[in-house]
Amino acid sequence: STNWLQHKKHFIILSSAGKPIWSRYGDESRISSFTGVIQAIISFFQDSDDTIKSINAGDYKFVFLLKEPLYFVAISKTGESDTQLKDQLVYLHNQILSVLTSSQLTRIFEQRVNFDLRRLLGGTEVFLDSLSTSFNNDHSFMFGALQVLRLGRSTRELAGQILSKGMAKDLLYAMVIAKDKLVTLLRPRKHSLHPSDLHLLFNMLTGSTTFHTAESWTPLCLPKFNSKGFLHAYICYIDTSVSVVMISTSKDTFFELSAWKEKLVKVIQAYGTTHLQTLLY
């Protein structure tokens, strides 16, 4: 449609069988003929033992990322480079892995090549939409970095000290996030947390208002940490713009983490109107 063509950048995800899975704009079910053409172009190169990476057509640039059993395509006239667009496609791939894991995705399509993945992704498309919007508004994606809340050193150290009180069993990561930016992160010495995994976690928080209403306990795959399995994330907003996120290796620690969160809140409140509480809230 005319509205579809007015956008300067599109993202499309399809299966290796040419089945549409997600489109940034419009209804993906209405572009099945278009995804069929994309699949045919990709197959033409594959038949010649080659891999298509990009096509320039007038003002438009088509960039391809082939991650069997899924194909990712960026169509852009924004002037962004092939590398920048490919990095964005990698993020979209990781967003799908955060919901399904690479093992689960491979197993599904091994059993049925023509599987309609939209049935499993139902309700999570909002995170793909949110992520693709963030590419235009947040340059930290381009630099592989992460935005942190601007705080004085002593304030950040205080937040870290509060977070480290009373470590819970099977806890892998714990963090405080304020105003959609990282305040402090607690992690084991041997396990760093890749910025792209943090971006996916932040996107999950900002992409939906569901987590604002109650304590949440959700399976989550962090692809850079381990693309083949799930961790479990405890998420609770202790104020309108302040959340506590704890990531556990065990699926049975919800109540333990919830109790620990209550202790954290009491410690923060005990500081009264100090600079920590003022800045976070």
In short:
With 281 residues, the protein is of the alpha+beta class.
Sequence-ordered SSE layout with sheet pairings:
Layout: H1 2-6, E1 9-15, E2 20-23, H2 32-47, E3 54-57, E4 60-67, E5 70-76, H3 82-100, H4 102-111, H5 118-121, H6 125-137, H7 140-143, H8 153-163, E6 171-178, E7 181-186, H9 195-207, E8 216-220, H10 223-226, E9 231-239, E10 242-248, H11 254-270, H12 275-280
Antiparallel strand pairs: 1-2, 1-5, 3-4, 4-5, 6-7, 6-10, 8-9, 9-10
Q: Can you describe this structure?
A:
There is one protein chain. By secondary structure, the protein is α+β, with helices and mostly antiparallel strands. The protein folds into two domains: 2-137, Beta-Lactamase (2-Layer Sandwich); 153-280, Dynein light chain 2a, cytoplasmic (Beta-Lactamase, 2-Layer Sandwich), CATH 3.30.450.30. The chain contains twelve helices and ten strands. It starts with a helix and ends with a helix. It is found in: Endosome, Multivesicular body membrane; Prevacuolar compartment membrane; Vacuole membrane.
Counting DSSP E segments of at least 2 residues, the number of strands comes to 10
How much helical structure, as a percent, in the residues?
A: 40-55%
CATH class of the largest domain: Alpha Beta
The class by helix and strand makeup works out as: alpha+beta
- The ordered H/E elements are HEEHEEEHHHHHHEEHEHEEHH
Query: Mind telling me which CATH architecture of the largest domain this is?
Result: 2-Layer Sandwich
Biggest sheet record = 5 strands, antiparallel
Distance between the termini: 45 Å
Report mean pLDDT, rounded to a whole number: 87
The quaternary structure here is single chain
